[in-house]
Give the backbone structure.
Amino acid sequence: MKRTLKGSAGLLVAAAALGLSACKPNPPERSEPEAPAEPGEAVPAKPEFKAGASKLPPDRSAKPAKPVPVELWKEFSGEKAFAEVRKQVELGPRPSGSGEIEKARAAIDASLRAAGWDVERQEFTETTPRGPVKFVNLVARFSPSMARPAPANTQRAIICSHYDTKRFSTIRFTGANDGASSSGALLELARVLALDPQLAAKVELVFFDGEEAVVQFTESDGLYGSRFYARSLRTSQRAGQFQFGILWDMIGDKDLTITLPPDSPQPLTQNLLRAADKLGVRSRFAYHDRSIWDDHVPLNQLKIPTVDLIDFDYLAWHTADDTLDQISPESLRTVGAVTLYHLREALAK
């Protein structure tokens, strides 16, 4: 659930449905005895080497590293992102603490690891209006050397999404846009970032559990995952290493209009709008008429400038109509490409 804030009162607007080895020295080389040839069998000739040449012929078995795409943002596939969205939706409603959300976690974890990312499970239990609930954030980091665990000190940007869905007793809510669209697109972002290992090592991907309020959104009900993650950054003293964050939420609407909160941090927002302009999609970005209470808030409170890329002008928000047919691969591609363009520009140095 998201809510919008008017003025300092921060009132809940229920109708705002708009809206990352040590190497041991090589052992001394030994000459292995040659097996004697069988009778009648020809003895293979030894390779000849010129003086000063290497003792061993070159190893041609290792594949050369693939070149990094110059225009990385063009590698983002809306169709592949959509396929990840579909996986989530087909699991059905995925509220925090349910068996279905654990299946969603397993699918997200598998996709991240397949793309070369190391995944940390942040498990915690919080008291909610309906009693204690277990939540699990998934935090992904990339190591160009494939070290495990991946180092946690190279990341400079946070890209995040929530993957839980709102719990309803009266409707079957699968959250195709509100939960699945941003999470599916984030998995495609992970795949594309892995094509540029040095850039990927500078990015932390976070899948928040418990964005939705268990009952009604208040300062203590909702944003469970992002609030816990922010506390963990403060406790581990990692917050200072991040330059910025980008939150994705409800980014799959066919009629995409990203409604930026008017209090979005500058110059981060302007840089993202500049990226959108460069890619010819500036018309898909506008400002909302009021602040939005979402997972970017705890990060901004931690003084990590974070912008919420969200389409709050979505009539199917928190209704049974938030289904897969509302989602456009092109909308997913638009947000993914703009974010990748900005990451290349901002983290190139």
